[in-house]
């Protein structure tokens, strides 16, 4: 068998951009502490009256984008404010896990349309107010090798 090498990534210098139609809303990685695109699927099962009559079928795959961020209500352009003001809107989210290198086959980015929702307001005494949202994705994220 062929030994497959692995090059794990560490999220240190990422880019997370949001576009609404042709409008570039901005890059939000300074506010974010987490961006994660996660798939899930269900299983459809059918059992007959014979022990050998068991059938399992994969369900349709769905994706969500989880964003964890520091709340900022002072800036009109903050992520907190953008989510609050645009709940329900569909936007394009682009995630580049390694912003220190050009987008390529060896350093891909991911792009997906998400539906925005408002995040938390407030938090715990003597700590940074944070929030987290889980945004529904419209289909599977596209793995892109060029930002052109």
From TrEMBL:
The protein's name in its UniProt record: Phage tail protein
